[in-house]
């Protein structure tokens, strides 16, 4: 079974061909990061326009690299939410046009279900149920993956997403966009215990997250230093901030796995490529006797291979979408 998958929910124009659910034959990603860096963040209108310019070429490359023709494809999959509406629309319109013209079934995929499914690519032994921590630029969710495409949300952020916090702190200390990888790199030279930042706990909701207090604490620290004319040691600040985020992510995820009785834990989303998070999660899981899974960095940030994997399981469970499929910017996890 061959699936052509398309992903355009944010600032990467991506297409992939996935065979039998878990074998990635091609994974083409055309990143717009350089363009958006000029503005310090993703500009939705520019993202949509660039998707239109690049999408045909990206799909052609994905088919070519996989060595398959459109006729050989069994289904066309596309992310239809959540994400930037204009950006999503480009992928959805393209997928519908290709599926209609080539007479193939159409499968719309939830972006976050895609992120979770990235774990299946390199871990043939991983099957539901398991606990998954999803940490991206727009989402922070702790879920139980009960079955393919079936999720129980046990924790979520009350304010900023984890990736958003990384991006905002990076901007405040002048590291630029995208913040996550730059903070990660700077933190390697810093002391994670140099500055004591708060670990936000949400009352009555042990698995929820809150990052706005931490973000404000970092901004206050920078302002105070500015007022006193002190220079900030960026690596120490990056390492201390990162440590505060990672500690909460790891403790919530591992505690949830223990409480709900799961011995497998996966991470997903752009922030899942963070080296401190991977290291600390690995260590905590080992101590707790939990098997830890994570995708390679290329499958953590936005890509279409993960959409093809999710689409395979959706397809075999009977999911098909019609020509009225629309982009849904605030699509809820588990909705179809
Ligand atoms: O999953 P993703 O590519 O897009 C969304 O669906 O949001 O995630 C992008 C987010 C950005 O906030 C980026 O700063 C963050 O993931 N990110 C990282 C790292 N690499 C990407 N955050 C921390 N450490 C990293 N190494
Ligand atoms: Zn994403």
Structure in words:
With 336 residues, this protein is an alpha/beta fold. It has 2 domains: 2-117 and 303-316, ATPase, nucleotide binding domain (Nucleotidyltransferase, domain 5); 128-295, Nucleotidyltransferase, domain 5 (2-Layer Sandwich). Helix content is 45%, strand content 19%. The strands form 2 sheets. The chain has a 5-stranded mixed β-sheet with strand order 3-2-1-4-5, sandwiched between helices. Helix 2 (44-66) packs parallel to helix 3. The longest helix is centred in the last third of the chain and has 27 residues, at 234-260. The model has no long low-confidence stretch (mean pLDDT 96). Zinc ion (ZN) is lined by residues 111, 115, 136, 269, 302.
What is the topological layout?
Blueprint lengths: L1 E6 L4 E8 L3 E9 L1 H5 L6 H23 L8 E7 L3 H18 L3 E5 H12 L7 E6 L4 E8 L2 E7 L5 H11 L6 H9 L24 H16 L6 H27 L3 E5 L6 H14 L2 E3 L3 H4 L4 H12 L20
Parallel strand pairs: 1-4, 4-5, 6-9, 9-10
Antiparallel strand pairs: 1-2, 2-3, 6-7, 7-8
Helix pairs in contact: 2-3, 4-11, 5-6, 5-7, 5-8, 6-8, 8-9
The structure holds 5'-O-[(R)-(carboxyoxy)(hydroxy)phosphoryl]adenosine and zinc ion (ZN).
């Amino acid at each position: 079974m061959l699936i052509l998958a398309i992903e355009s929910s944010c600032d990467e124009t991506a297409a992939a061909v996935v065979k039998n659910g878990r074998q990635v034959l091609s994974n083409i990603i055309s990143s717009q990061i350089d363009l958006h860096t000029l503005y310090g963040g993703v500009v939705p209108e520019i993202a949509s326009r660039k998707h239109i310019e690049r999408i045909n070429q990206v799909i052609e490359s994905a088919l070519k690299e996989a060595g398959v023709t459109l006729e050989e494809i069994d289904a066309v999959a596309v992310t239809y939410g959540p994400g930037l509406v204009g950006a999503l629309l480009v992928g959805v319109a393209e997928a519908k046009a290709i599926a209609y013209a080539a007479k193939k079934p159409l499968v719309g995929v939830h972006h976050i279900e895609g992120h979770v499914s990235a774990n299946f690519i390199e871990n043939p032994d991983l099957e539901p149920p398991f606990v998954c921590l999803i940490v991206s630029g727009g989402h922070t969710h702790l879920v139980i993956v009960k079955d393919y495409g079936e999720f129980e949300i046990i924790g979520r952020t009350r304010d900023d997403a984890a990736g958003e916090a990384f991006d905002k702190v990076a901007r405040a200390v002048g590291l630029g966009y995208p913040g996550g990888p730059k903070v990660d790199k700077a933190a390697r030279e810093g002391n994670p215990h140099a500055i004591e930042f708060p670990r936000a706990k949400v009352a009555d909701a042990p698995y929820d997250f809150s990052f706005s207090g931490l973000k404000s604490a970092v901004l206050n620290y920078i302002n105070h230093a500015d007022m006193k004319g002190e220079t900030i040691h960026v690596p120490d600040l990056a390492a201390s901030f990162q440590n505060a985020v990672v500690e909460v992510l790891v403790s919530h995820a591992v505690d949830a796995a223990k409480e709900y009785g799961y011995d497998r834990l996966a991470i997903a989303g752009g922030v899942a490529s963070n080296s401190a998070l991977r290291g600390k999660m690995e260590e905590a899981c080992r101590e707790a006797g939990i098997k830890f899974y994570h995708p390679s960095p290329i499958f953590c940030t936005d890509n279409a291979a993960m959409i093809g994997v999710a689409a395979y399981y959706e397809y075999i469970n009977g999911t098909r979408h019609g020509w009225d499929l629309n982009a849904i910017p605030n699509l809820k996890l588990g909705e179809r």
